[in-house]
From TrEMBL:
InterPro entries: NAD(P)-bd_dom_sf (IPR036291), Sc_DH/Rdtase_CS (IPR020904), SDR_fam (IPR002347)
Protein name per UniProt: SDR family oxidoreductase
Record PANTHER family: DEHYDROGENASE/REDUCTASE SDR FAMILY MEMBER 11, DEHYDROGENASE_REDUCTASE SDR FAMILY MEMBER 11
Species name: Amycolatopsis eburnea
Keywords: Oxidoreductase
Signal peptide from the UniProt entry: none
Organism domain of life: Bacteria
Length: 240
């Protein structure tokens, strides 16, 4: 069954791959990110392949923008079936480097952005009697490594918040946390601390395609009614 799927952070990486895969599978995707030029190029690729997509410039740290993102999809398509909260940033650094502005940015995007997505989606899910919320967390939601204290803290928070949503949501609402390991993406490009940047080069020696994570999302949302895939962890085989 075709679903209306909203994806934040759709301009690159996992969000981009998820949009392509779900559109190929017949779903209507609603693309949100700050880089509207990339979204337009992605939408064209989807349309050229016979799929359907809408584009919305979106900053997930702005609660009103996220609410408008969800409201516009419902107005245009009648419902919101799946909200994929994918937007995230990862400027890693040691705590004693005191990159406080970067810490704040991770909290704003990775935690507040997730909460804004939940606040935008839940009223629609409640009126419809169902829906599916998917959070893209990280293996950093299961372990802490040097230079990643704040990033992992935000991902632990994302995992906890999403589990809380699952426990509180009505039986018609499905909730999934997908925790990727090392994925080919632009996430590491925002690292400014030289030591963390060098460590990440080694850490990212073995990566997965973002389409691997798109496949996990497709699996979760493709389950029949009454089946709720709560958590998926996907790592490269070489990652320990």
């Amino acid at each position: 069954m075709s679903k209306t799927v909203l994806i934040t952070g759709a301009s690159s990486g996992i969000g981009h791959a998820t949009a392509l895969r779900l559109a190929r599978e017949g779903h209507h995707v609603v693309l949100g990110a700050r880089r509207e030029d990339r979204l337009n190029a992605l939408a064209k690729e989807i349309h050229d392949a016979g799929g359907t997509a809408d584009v919305h410039r979106l900053d997930v740290t702005d609660r009103a923008e996220v609410a408008a993102f969800a409201d516009a999809a419902v107005e245009a398509h009648g419902r919101l079936d799946v909200f994929v909260a994918n937007a995230g940033v990862m400027p890693l650094s040691r705590l004693d480097s005191l990159h406080v502005e970067e810490w704040d940015r991770m909290i704003d995007v990775n935690v507040r952005g997730l909460l804004h997505g939940i606040a935008a989606a839940l009223p629609h899910f409640g009126r419809q009697g169902g829906g599916h919320f998917v959070t893209i967390a990280s293996t950093g939601a299961h372990e802490v490594v040097p230079t990643a204290a704040v990033y992992c803290g935000t991902k632990y928070a994302a995992r906890a918040i999403t589990e809380g949503l699952r426990l509180e949501a009505g039986p018609g609402i499905r909730v999934t946390t997908v925790s990727p390991g090392v994925v080919e993406s632009e996430l590491a490009d925002t690292i400014t601390e030289p030591g963390a940047k060098e460590a990440m080069r080694t850490y990212r020696a073995a990566t997965m395609s973002p389409d691997t994570i798109a496949g996990a999302i497709s699996y979760a949302i493709g389950q029949p009614d009454g089946v709720d895939v709560n958590e998926i962890v996907v790592r490269p085989t070489a990652q320990r």
